[in-house]
Amino acid sequence: MAATRVLVLNSGSSSLKYQLLDMRDAARLAAGLVERIGEQTSRLRHTCLTSAETREHTGPIADHDAALKAVAAELGRDGLGLDSPELAAIGHRVVHGGLFFTEPTVIDDAVIAEIERLVPVAPLHNPANLTGIRTARALRPDLPQVAVFDTAFHTTMPESAARYAIDPKIADRHRIRRYGFHGTSHAYVSRETARLLGKDPSEVNVIVLHLGNGASASAVEKGRCVDTSMGMTPLEGLVMGTRSGDLDPAVIFHLARVGGMSMDEIDTLLNKRSGLFGLCGDNDMREIRRRIDEGDEEAALAFDIYIHRLKKYIGAYFAVLGTVDAIAFTAGVGENAVPVREAALTGLDGLGLAVDPELNAMRADEARLISPKDARVAVAVVPTDEELEIATQTYALVGKNN
Q: Is the pLDDT of residue 402 over 70?
């Protein structure tokens, strides 16, 4: 029996998201989420997609080891257990790979040690990713496990885009540079946009706008990332749900010296209490639009700031790329917020950008064009699929190694 299945794990500090895919046809067999790990109110929600059955369990799940064992039990009930000979590999999302990891990598002790060395530049993410890796390796030590890095797609950025203008010796000593994130999404969406245009990725230049609670933009030239909005951390760039995005760094000094705030307080402010939430008290674009429709000026200003920053990056990446074949909107806001897509491109006719109002208003689950037929630059809505991208990279690597 051929081993064609890949289990994708995305381990957070108190959560575990997963999908099981059959790579013969990229079919999803099961998916689920374990949340509030370590609490008495832990919850596991599991869906077997082959039978369309969803099961939910609540109660204490002590740690990630217990969470993965619970997931394995649910998969086993559906005949899809971790002991199946059809399981080819487990693919792990790892947020930060630094400059060392530029492609998916089979996990061994040396790889784990390097991911650990990157914890100082990804203290919220890499430790949780490592927990998932160690747990999965303990359960299936005989099975290939692959790390797929959020930063890998952006390692093709030239030094002129990746470097900050500070002393290189200090920067190198402390690993300070622009790494970028959401790389699996940007890779998948840029490639799918090329397919939508009937071209090879090496033939097109694409600006990808990954707009979710976290948001980032990238300039993709002939299939390679040449610039992206997030930097050393996911704080830089676009206005996000709770993150400020670009900020004069002297604001931090001012808050410390004049505002009397500690570094931890400033960190919390900029990462968790800024962005749309900080501006108007909501980070859900649907709620913000509802408030705007009711005449809420605070929500309207937050929306305008969000769009202003987005337009700046669109214009900047036109300059970086020189020629743009398509702009692709993706992720929760990008795929669903009709007013965001319209507002982001309004007034950019000189760049060849426009949306067809009827096409923009249509709801669909598949990739589609929303620009007029005669538009100089295509505008696309491309649902992202980071789990499929991780599974695809994992399966390709395992097959190559075998």
A: no
End-to-end, the C-alpha distance of the chain in Å comes to 16
- For 260, counting Cβ atoms within 10 Å of its Cβ (0-12 exposed, 13-18 middle, 19+ buried), the class is exposed
Indicate the burial class of 345 (C-beta count within 10 angstroms; 0-12, 13-18, 19 or more): buried
3-class SS at 219? strand
Residue-wise DSSP of 198-211:
TS-GGG-EEEEEEE
Residue entry with tokens 């490639």: 191
**pLDDT band, residue 302 (cuts 50/70/90):** very high
How are beta strands 27-35 and 15-22 bridged, if at all? antiparallel
356 is catalytic: no
Strand pairing category for 205-211 and 215-221: antiparallel
Query: Token digits for 292?
Result: 């705007």
Categorize the per-residue pLDDT at 245 as very low, low, confident or very high, splitting at 50, 70 and 90: very high
Contacting residues for 177 by C-beta, under 8 A, at least 6 apart: 99, 162, 163, 164, 171, 232
Mean pLDDT over 207-213 rounds to 96
Provide, rounded to the nearest whole percent, the portion of the chain with pLDDT above 90: 87
Residue 2 pLDDT grade (very low, low, confident, very high; cuts 50, 70, 90) = confident
Strand 5-11 and strand 368-369: pairing? unpaired
Stated as kind and residue range, the H or E segment containing 21 is strand 15-22
CB 11 within 8 A of CB 128: yes
Catalytic one of 22, 150, 227, 385: 150
| Cβ(71)–Cβ(115) below 8 Å | no
